[in-house]
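Batch job 17 of 40 flagged for manual review because the log was empty.
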Amino acid sequence: MGTLHLIDVDGAEHELDADRLLVAAADLEGATDWVLKPEGLCRGDACVPLLGRPVARQGRIDLAEWAAALRLNLAVDSDHGVAALTPPADARAELEGGPAPNLALPDVDGNIVELGSLAGRKRVLVTWASWCGCRHELGAWQALQEELGPEGLSIYSVALDASADDAKPWIEEAAPTYPVVVDTAHVTAERYGITNVPSTVWIDEDGTVVKPPAIAPGDDQFRDFTEIDSSVHHDALRRWVLEGEVPEAPVRADDPRTDDGQLALAHRRVAAWLQARGHDEPAAAHLATAVDLAPWDWTVRRAGIKLRGGDPFLGDEFLTFWQEWDEAGRPGYR
């Protein structure tokens, strides 16, 4: 017997008593709130029938069968005792016009800040990363916060990084007054369908998404690369905040996530866990699997270069990727 480290759909880690993928039922129930009953797997009033699926084996729960019954993506590294879950692509509701998924993420000091804590105000969810030039744009968002904050706007900034230490220097340099949190499990990318940064999402006072993810640089430092004029987004943002005008359709919206993309995120979570513990080769293998599944997802591919210690700006691997992406029509930059 041993221990399996399970990273759940919310990015939280749990230790389960396990014999490879046969895990203690009580541990899995405590981690996920799913209970095995005669009628199926149940959480609260919801039950999923098993239809003969052999979830229980040898007095334990077969994690692979359990995940399949719940239609969850599962990435596993049995040799190192770690597994990660992500929901299927169709579990993510249509964002535009729907409720904004809540986020509860730590800042660099470990304090949890909820997106929902800003309810009652217009909100812009801004995603960035230390592996992106947008790490230099926190000051531009601060200027917008100072301009539009008195008019009812709040910015909630999320760094999609492997650790708080990666994001901390850029946060300290900009010293923003708006909340900046770090999402090491990329839960934000999964819940909002974000495949590249910098992306923004607009959320109204009632928590409804009025503009789904779109590429939106904070300023024009990298306009030659992005080919996007930041003033277009910012002027539209001003009209929304000051006049209530919402664009008819998102501009350059990211492609929605696929089931392969969701599974890629699970492999990326396993890779990040392994890399943080010095297991470089298996981490690289899981990242390679993630890239095969989602080749145009920058939160996997470019972030993976940084995770493995490569140069995500001018290194040969990144430049090759950038050329492939550019020649493919810049997927995700419609």
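Reviewer: the log was empty due to a logging misconfiguration, but the result itself is present. The chain has a mean pLDDT of 94. Unflagging and moving on to job 18.
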